[in-house]
Design a protein that fits this description.
The structure is a homotetramer. By secondary structure, the first copy, chain A, is α/β, with parallel strands linked by helices. The first copy, chain A, contains 12 helices and 15 strands. Chains A, B, C, D: It holds the Pfam family DAHP_synth_1.
Chain lengths: 345, 345, 345, 345
Amino acid sequence: MVIVMTPEATRQDVDAIVDLVATAGGDAFVSRGVNRTIIGLVGDITQFGTLNLGSMQGVADVMRISTPYKLVSRENHPERSTVRVAGVPIGPDTVTLIAGPCAVETPQQTLEAARMARAAGASLLRGGAYKPRTSPYAFQGLGEAGLRILADVREETGLPIVTEVVNAHDVDLVASYADMLQVGTRNAQNFALLQAVGAAGKPVMLKRGMNATIEEWLMSAEYIAQRGNLDIVLCERGIRTFETATRNTLDVSAVPVVQRLSHLPVIIDPSHSGGRRDLVLPLTRSAIAVGADGVIIDVHPHPEQALCDGPQALVDGDLEELARVMRDFPPLMGRLPAAALTPVA
Amino acid sequence: MVIVMTPEATRQDVDAIVDLVATAGGDAFVSRGVNRTIIGLVGDITQFGTLNLGSMQGVADVMRISTPYKLVSRENHPERSTVRVAGVPIGPDTVTLIAGPCAVETPQQTLEAARMARAAGASLLRGGAYKPRTSPYAFQGLGEAGLRILADVREETGLPIVTEVVNAHDVDLVASYADMLQVGTRNAQNFALLQAVGAAGKPVMLKRGMNATIEEWLMSAEYIAQRGNLDIVLCERGIRTFETATRNTLDVSAVPVVQRLSHLPVIIDPSHSGGRRDLVLPLTRSAIAVGADGVIIDVHPHPEQALCDGPQALVDGDLEELARVMRDFPPLMGRLPAAALTPVA
Amino acid sequence: MVIVMTPEATRQDVDAIVDLVATAGGDAFVSRGVNRTIIGLVGDITQFGTLNLGSMQGVADVMRISTPYKLVSRENHPERSTVRVAGVPIGPDTVTLIAGPCAVETPQQTLEAARMARAAGASLLRGGAYKPRTSPYAFQGLGEAGLRILADVREETGLPIVTEVVNAHDVDLVASYADMLQVGTRNAQNFALLQAVGAAGKPVMLKRGMNATIEEWLMSAEYIAQRGNLDIVLCERGIRTFETATRNTLDVSAVPVVQRLSHLPVIIDPSHSGGRRDLVLPLTRSAIAVGADGVIIDVHPHPEQALCDGPQALVDGDLEELARVMRDFPPLMGRLPAAALTPVA
Amino acid sequence: MVIVMTPEATRQDVDAIVDLVATAGGDAFVSRGVNRTIIGLVGDITQFGTLNLGSMQGVADVMRISTPYKLVSRENHPERSTVRVAGVPIGPDTVTLIAGPCAVETPQQTLEAARMARAAGASLLRGGAYKPRTSPYAFQGLGEAGLRILADVREETGLPIVTEVVNAHDVDLVASYADMLQVGTRNAQNFALLQAVGAAGKPVMLKRGMNATIEEWLMSAEYIAQRGNLDIVLCERGIRTFETATRNTLDVSAVPVVQRLSHLPVIIDPSHSGGRRDLVLPLTRSAIAVGADGVIIDVHPHPEQALCDGPQALVDGDLEELARVMRDFPPLMGRLPAAALTPVA
């Protein structure tokens, strides 16, 4: 941590800070310039955070120089992690395709979507039983009935399930069905939910808040990790910007940035970021090429009847090209499609 | 709702839409131009929302032309509302000052802050017992012990309490102490929480999500209203932009925009938007002058010891000017300070 | 300037930086911590900027701690400045109203708008002869014919003229008519234009780029100041954000922030930021209350016929309230309306 | 164009609009609903733009439904275009690498950078002689001396030159040296400059404004096209968002969006968007995979001595991987590296 003093700061102001830091068990190095004095702090940053140094007399600015997260940081865990979801790897050696319907609507629709997913090379099935919707008048999901449908389809297809949970109260119920719990963009700073999924004993997919900085996203992951769960997969799904041609702006740069800061795997959701079917395949290719550890994609057998996000779902006619992308692009990245490793029975 | 067809759309495509809309009980008016056909839909928009018209053959764009919220809309409730919190009005005739510490830390600190609030003309006491913090290592609030401190200080000062709730599970507990429940910016789309506070029988202050459009903010209010609670006060607290000189960018324009769209009162939080003590008084004046129905401000007897957001709290030396602003500006807006109407014993 | 080394940086890496800084005539103070070393640089920051320290071996981050502008900075010029435009003051003691049509269309329209401006308490007349328009098919202004109209209306009404220049090549021509040159938001980083107006010998109003940070805005002012012209008035006119209910988001916080960083006056444009007539008066009040040194407002005698930005122009029916705002709000800020000091003949 | 009337609009209000549209030579189709009336306009949108329909009595909203650009639109030119720069193609069949130093500093540095570019598979040489810099104290480029260096290096290496022009006044001079003129992000709405490059008879690379919507970007291209020059290549280079981990946020989605709206080629600048050397290769792969028609990349023989943007330049050690990317990725997109078609002597 570095403290920059104002030009008017006195020697007493500087001494007061040095003393305070010493009290907190740290060391303070003072650099006196012609116009300004800088104080470098060395020690436990968590400790310094409670000192409220920014309010001290003569302080112009307090700059943090180390990362505020620990458990998810790559500094203390240089090797990149692989998370396994019912045996399916998500990590640096593979590209994992997760696909399925945005929302579970009927057994038939879910089963058809799961078969589409498998045909395209998916190793995991996505599908929402609890849907956080901007409007209270929109379809909110089937709830537990949806979870049962997913379990039946898993039985039928062999694909493990990734599904969203929107309320701390429902975590145990959802975890009793799911292979991986998803926390959505609107709940990225719902700390009670993060703590609950951290304690649930299942892998977690944490979507980036649409207004979250990369640092805030990693801090949210830290909430989960603190409860003893490091099986976390980060998912970039677009951030909110001024551009309205796409629903959100997919931040592909976030993938290499996060991979340098954290050991956790990071995947991309090309369906929700663009919000348009014609963008899904280009963004999927872009995701793999930038180094994402996987992608999560909406497919629907009859998108014109979808109760949620139909306009962005891939349809039958897109699957061949998706399968080609999943086959041809990972090798250029020195990776295997996860489906090649964990063939579904 | 208006549907714009692509230049290539056929007569059959248009007819298919007209038929579908008729099935849903609506009327479709077709305007055929040289290059494009436009279809105007008349009827129940909620119904049309489920039709997934955007996925129909030949459709270029679907444009909504009416507001998606109803209960909080001014269209169906032209008179602006006044919400009463334990008798204290927040509405079009008054300017209400809510003040207090960001977080409840000790009985002594809370009592001193409440006295500062009263001296500055506050009618309501703010103070957080549950704090949603970006970092899991930061002070998370005293929980129920904090609520008890607030209740004691209410007893002592006569100021009703506004306090945040961060988890649907805690709503009943917090409501048993609070006079008004606050939903914070990070929970603005935590729909389970919105529904729970909607059912709790207490007035609610709903902060704008830092990335929420005005329309999304009103949709979040609609979630609360749907549970039968229209005692909602909206609070603008800054949105996230590229500017880093302030913590967030206070969107004062949102006040007149919201007052035109909704009958609900809207107040401003000048403390959290700027994140800097030197901005609080200018932004408070600006808030009253733009027409806000109130302001909510952090004060702290010893900000250098604050466990949360110390750098933005007003201190003793600021109170006189705050009192002057609360006295001189409301009359120019044809309003009274709320404190003039509901003198605290 | 502070250099943060990576945890892996060697003693040689640190020494190389100390030596390089010494070569550039500066001093480097080294603070060695357990995990990281920090180097504080003291000396001429402009010099260090050319050293490309960020590319040196072992450097994790380079943090600037002083402002990169000098001439417009308040550090070297603590007293806030007053700029005079043909005798009319814009500065800390007054609130100056600049009003007029967005674009000069006809002599009659311009004269009527000027009379509206005067009736509302304006001391300066705005009006565009050169209009930068997003579309090449939109009205681009009358050019020199428009300047002649403005000069005639100045003759008739006594109001000095503020008008925009969009091309370095036109600066001398525009300066031969105008009392103050305006640089618009789209040209906020058109450095050739900034240098040309800096050399023209007339006061300049510099609008903030709609995507400019406050620091970048002040750097643009520094370009003007470098050519020997410190008669610069800054104008906040809204920044681009995700919110679409208003054309741009007016950043009122920028006013006190800028007034602390720079000695230059700063005014607000409530017309272009909101883009809606119903927001102009609320934002004008908000601007004065936050401490702006003036406001610039569009008025039009017949906005339904306006060739540019008609929907945001104030009309006859609004003038009485504008005049009241200009009379009642400045005294609460300890200021006078500029019109009270410089009565137009 | 669709006009949405307010619920209170009268039959007279509607008739007034129908009459006005007829006067302008258009047709108006009226759809009367229970709550609202919608009017669809058919005819020449440019004509309607001057009617100021938004200011008419009873109008709630005016929605444009066709694109405001024509010459660059794909609607009127369905085939995607290939632009040739001194024979080098940029278009749908190839992936073109443009590389070179950010700024021309010395003959030696420029020649070495050009050789690096060629080794990596570049067909065109980039290099700036005029640099638009945020700070007036930063290196502003060598001017015409820099252009002469570029011409000498072209002579030596056979690589045609792409270089920036920042001032309408300099266009003829720069065009006398350059093979392609570049308009930078800060000048994306410098309309005088756009018109000047449109008239210069050389291909133009138009960078997206860092705050420009895709529509505004295409409108800027329309300014160039209007002067008779359709040899325009669009360049996405990152937009400004709240994220600070990267200099700007590269908007890869813009590539397929633009390719659907416009026939012009679109390339990506992975160097300036991220501002970090470690992001350049991942973003280059991502750019090719999303379908970009080319990439433009900074290389520097000695980035630690660079006068501009050293931290983002690729160095010798990166060239092999860049060459591999340029060789392996285009075939997966059904394209050839441009260098394979136009081998440099």
